[in-house]
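Comment thread on ticket #2218

A.B. wrote:
> Attaching the input chain for the structure job we discussed in standup.
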Amino acid sequence: MFSMSPTLAGFAAIIMWSLLALFTASSGPVPPLQLLAMTFSIGSLVGLLYWLKNPPSRDLLRQSPKVWLVGIGGLFGYHFFYYTALQNAPAAEASLVAYLWPVLIVVFSAFLPGEKFRWFHAAGTLLGFSGALLLILSRNQVSQVADTATLGYLAAFSCAFIWSAYSVISRTFKNVSTDSVVLFCLATAILSLIAHLILETTYWPESTIQWLAILALGLMPVGLAFYAWDYAMKHGPIQLLASAAYLAPVLSTIILVLAGRAEMRWRLAAATLLVTFGAILASGKLTRGHSLA
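C.D. wrote:
> Ran it. Output below, let me know if you need it in another format.
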């Protein structure tokens, strides 16, 4: 029986990730790896400030190599391949492929102890995938898929595999405190900075709005969201949260529309219905009247 706290933490992470597109679009000319280093530094600072009030265990650094590999590899690996995907393939299609991770979480979680893969998980995730597909891809874009860069799509699939594997494997690390995510974020910031210095030219934000957008990125989508998601994956209903993750691209689009950065169309309304119903169906608990607690 799961408590509501991990479930709500997972939902909070999904909502914060839905702000990623808006904040990123407002961050100005900062190149990807530099932006990653800046935002993960802020995200690390959030955790370090929490430590001042609630000092972590002295054994925090004494993690197994597997924990370090999964933690750092999940955060750094996902974002490295994400930016590679968007640089080598059309953004909409690459984003769709990267958003296969909720489906993969549901599939992978079926192999966890005490979990079973049922028909409503499959049906719900298929509906959610259909909604994301309808929202992101137009008829013309679909016809052009075969002509896009193979490297970009391979990188996007790597994103989906890395984040789903990270999320599901985190479930097996229930005894590893979420405080460890602070160290993973700090390591990601350092690795991103090294990669930036090697591969990119430095450009700084040009306005107050751009600085505030980067600050917001570090505090929420690339900060608090990771701590909340880690806690949710270790203690919450993993298949429900994976299905609910389909809401992220829909919420992101709605936010962009309200901010005047996207146009409202029928695809948005139809995708919202498909994604929302898919999440409810895949949860199983809602369809059968069970409590989420």
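A.B. wrote:
> Thanks. Noting for the ticket: DSSP finds 14 helices and no strands in the chain.
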